[in-house]
Write a structure and sequence with these properties.
With 461 residues, the protein is an alpha/beta fold. Helix content is 40%, strand content 17%. The protein binds beta-D-glucopyranose.
């Protein structure tokens, strides 16, 4: 008889040799989807972003043009999504098409959205509809957008009209896509219209006004459609102190996280923001509890160092270390670290609201599909672990189905599971598209996919 140690190690060895890795199964009815946005896929846009483009603000110099031609033929890509085995698709209504002039409604545009939603349902794909994904009519922008005192009622009026027209075909609503990104890029970084810079207090006012508009829309939708499920899509970023032992780096990272991640989210959770964000004007009490789910858009991690020279940027030096997994680079700066673990951080934060969670965007710009398979496998693995821990996650929507027009980066950054040639409109399935399709069809992550794509080495290729 051997020593106790030998016995233990022998039994462990024998257990390991008999061990067959098991599939990571997902709950029945889990949604495997893709997310899109009207401006990026429809083509022929006529909104405040069209003016931004005409003013030469797309860094790549590209124009959106026909985009993915969805206004004419989204259905070809719905067929593709169906063939891939996807059971959900998030799209947005382009407000500027539906209400091109204030209070003038375009019934042809509304009919087009009806056809699209019907098309999805006929293919067994559940639609989720966003009401605002960064774009809106020129007249709304000219009136000051969400800084106008009437923005809430105006957005509610638009919401009511859409729910009356389309509510029989859709029960899942995203009021706003990423109010924090809209406010930060439009009013602090100047990368989105209206292109204002360093106006942090204004950005907080914008996000607060959106939270109040969201609350109005939430109640209006429920009044018209009692079984509706209403949420918003929150962009969550991990801000990592560059030196975890430096108190100043930790303070700066946590300040950025509070500003970016807590805005809007805390308004919905508590009906108020913490100091110092609560110094911006406005009562947020109406926003408290106004969501049936939390949508999370999760992409990146940024490192943050305290920098005395950056007084105009809250003393924050925000950077992406060179040795971390990254997709393709933006025209002027890195897109960000591809960081699947960010999903865990975002879900743990969002779980505090006690509502079901959907990952409504996750992806990487990667024309050659170098690291997208690695990202997908590790994101899905992460989701499985979180569900095992008890988090109520109901779906994962990859960003995005086919390459589309990436805001200020134009055609420079490619996020599609399927590649698009915007000139010929030719589509080519990437291997990550095949991989995602395998996961969706199996409703599981199979061990051989983890073995093939899950390796940490792949992330840095
Ligand atoms: C936005 C998408 C965008 C994606 C990739 C998200 O923040 O909602 O519209 O294309 O990120 O950058």
């Amino acid at each position: 008889m051997g020593s106790p140690e030998t016995t233990v190690s022998e039994s462990t060895a024998s257990a390991l040799s008999n061990y067959t890795p098991q599939p990571m199964n997902f709950p029945k009815d889990f949604l495997w989807g893709v997310s899109t946005a009207a401006h990026q896929v429809e083509g022929g846009n006529n909104n405040q972003w069209s003016d931004w483009e005409a003013a030469g603000r797309i860094r790549s110099g590209d124009s959106c043009g026909r985009a993915c031609d969805w206004w004419n033929n989204a259905e070809a890509d719905f067929d593709l999504a169906q063939r891939m085995g996807l059971n959900a698709l998030r799209l947005s209504v382009e407000w500027s098409r539906v209400e091109p002039d204030e209070n003038r409604w375009d019934s042809t545009a509304i009919k087009r959205y009806r056809t699209a939603l019907l098309g999805l349902r006929e293919r067994g794909i559940q639609p989720m509809l966003s009401l605002h994904h960064f774009t809106h009519p020129r007249w709304f922008e000219a009136d000051g957008a969400f800084l106008n005192a009437d923005a809430g009622p105006t957005f509610e009026r638009f919401t009511r009209r859409i729910v009356q027209e389309l509510g029989d075909l859709c029960q899942n609503w995203v009021t706003f896509n990423e109010p924090n990104v809209y406010a930060a890029l439009g009013y602090v970084l100047g990368e989105f219209p209206p292109g204002r810079t360093s106006e942090i207090a204004t950005a907080v006012r914008v996000a607060n006004a959106m939270a109040r508009a969201h609350a109005r829309a939430y109640h209006a939708i429920h009044e018209l459609q009692p079984n509706a499920r209403v949420g918003w899509a929150h962009n969550y970023v991990v801000f990592e102190p560059a030196n975890p032992r430096s108190r100043l780096d930790r303070w700066t990272a946590s300040l950025l996280s509070q500003l970016f991640n807590e805005i809007f989210l805390a308004a919905i959770e508590n009906g108020r923001l913490e100091f110092p964000l609560n110094l911006a004007d406005g009562d947020l009490a109406s926003a408290k509890g106004t969501c049936d789910f939390v949508g999370l858009n999760v992409y990146s991690r940024f490192h943050v160092a305290f920098s005395p020279e950056k007084s105009s940027q809250l003393f924050a030096d925000v950077f992406v270390p060179p040795d971390v997994p990254q997709g393709d680079c933006g025209v002027e700066k890195p897109y960000g670290e591809a960081y699947p673990e960010a999903i865990g951080a975002a879900v743990r934060r969002a779980s505090r609201l006690g509502k079901p969670i959907y990952i409504l965007e996750n992806g990487v710009p990667d024309a050659k599909d170098r690291i997208r398979p690695w990202l997908i496998v590790n994101a899905v693995k992460q989701l499985h672990e979180l569900i095992q821990e008890g988090h109520d996650i109901r779906g994962y929507f990859h960003w995005t189905l086919i390459d589309n027009f990436e805001w200020t980066e134009g055609w420079n950054l490619r996020f599609g599971l399927v590649a698009l040639d915007p000139v010929t409109q030719e589509r080519t399935m990437r291997k990550s598209g095949e991989l995602y399709s395998e996961i969706a069809r199996a409703n599981a992550l199979l061990p051989e996919l983890i073995a093939r794509f899950g390796d940490a080495q792949m992330g840095t290729r």
